[in-house]
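Q&A log
Question type: sequence-to-structure
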Amino acid sequence: MAPMDVATSFLPVLQVFAAEMPQPAFQNLLILVSEWLVAPRRTILGMVRASGTPRHHSAFHRLFSSASWSVDAVGLAVFDLVTATMSTVFLTIDDTLIPRTGNHKVLTQRPPSVGNST
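Response status: OK
Response body:
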């Protein structure tokens, strides 16, 4: 697939971000997305170095750490985009960040050995 085909395939999703983000933040996102494809290391610093931009890398880290845009609004807009183009959508939910309550005992008793029979 040609690089231009890959870049244009991101266009509908990037337009969702453009509607939900301030213009300076969106410009930083465009730099990161365009360099994500060609950077040797897929880290923020690696993408900034690959872009050759004179801006300090902290501006790109702030895009995610102190976002002036709503992650929820962008997520809902991307979901609307996906559901508009597909008739069936399967969701996978990750609950690893949900706090757990109750007793957290793990392997408090030794399991019976397979070789020992009583």
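Response note: The two ends are 64 Å apart (CA to CA).
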